[in-house]
């Protein structure tokens, strides 16, 4: 459960694990466009990374439903609170849409979608060159959108950590109660010693 203004261990593990995977995927995507020599190797890495992100995004959504995140600080301006919620849901939407678009794109192009060993994913859509071209364009555009959104998310995290210092970053970065949030526990006053 997400209690006392911080995320639980599973939420933190999923967040930071997916952050690494998404960043790796973005750099793999850039490498696929920039280097013809590395392209075949990067494509082999791109597919399982995309499916891993898709599956983990579903796990995160389920966990978020079972253990809602801690509330944002009460003094956070309303436009910033709305932007935070909207950007999180947009991140989830893109983490689901990008792998599904890539999988559908390969299916429409008539390409197999091998994973590991003999495991292959079934086609999501029928072979259709026109649909393939459209999905490829959409996959590229949304890739840039995801990259921009990740940069905005990182900037917002640093803003909360270094400027506002309101415990939002600590809630995901550390276990236990964020340092800036007050505790409900009372500290016992030391018992005065009697003078001899």
From TrEMBL:
Protein origin, superkingdom: Bacteria
Keyword Transmembrane helix: yes
Gene3D superfamilies, per the entry: Transmembrane di-heme cytochromes, Chain C
GO molecular function, one term: heme binding
GO cellular component: plasma membrane
GO BP: respiratory electron transport chain
Keyword Iron: yes
Bilayer-spanning residue ranges: 13-38, 45-63, 89-111, 141-162
Cofactor requirements of the protein: heme b
Main localisation: membrane
Stretches for region Disordered: 174-196
Keywords: Cell membrane, Electron transport, Heme, Iron, Membrane, Metal-binding, Transmembrane, Transmembrane helix, Transport
Family recorded in the similarity comment: Belongs to the cytochrome b561 family.
Protein name per the record: Cytochrome b
Organism of this sequence: Luteimonas viscosa
């Amino acid at each position: 459960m997400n209690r006392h203004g911080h995320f639980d261990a599973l939420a933190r593990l999923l967040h930071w694990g997916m952050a690494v995977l998404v960043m790796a995927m973005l750099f793999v995507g850039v490498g696929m466009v920039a280097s013809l020599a590395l392209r075949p190797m990067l494509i082999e890495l791109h597919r399982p990374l995309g499916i891993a992100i898709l599956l983990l995004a579903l796990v995160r959504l389920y966990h978020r439903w079972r253990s809602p995140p801690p509330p944002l600080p009460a003094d956070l301006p309303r436009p910033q609170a709305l932007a935070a919620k909207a950007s999180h849901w947009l991140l989830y939407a893109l983490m689901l849409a990008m792998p599904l678009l890539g999988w559908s794109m390969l299916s429409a192009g008539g390409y197999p979608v091998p994973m590991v060993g003999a495991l292959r994913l079934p086609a999501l859509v029928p072979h259709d060159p026109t649909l393939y071209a459209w999905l490829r364009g959409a996959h590229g555009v949304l890739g840039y959108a995801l990259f921009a959104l990740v940069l905005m998310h990182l900037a917002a995290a640093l803003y909360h950590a270094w400027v506002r210092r309101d415990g939002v970053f600590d809630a995901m970065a550390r276990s236990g109660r964020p340092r800036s949030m007050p505790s409900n526990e009372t500290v016992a006053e030391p018992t005065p010693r009697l003078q001899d």
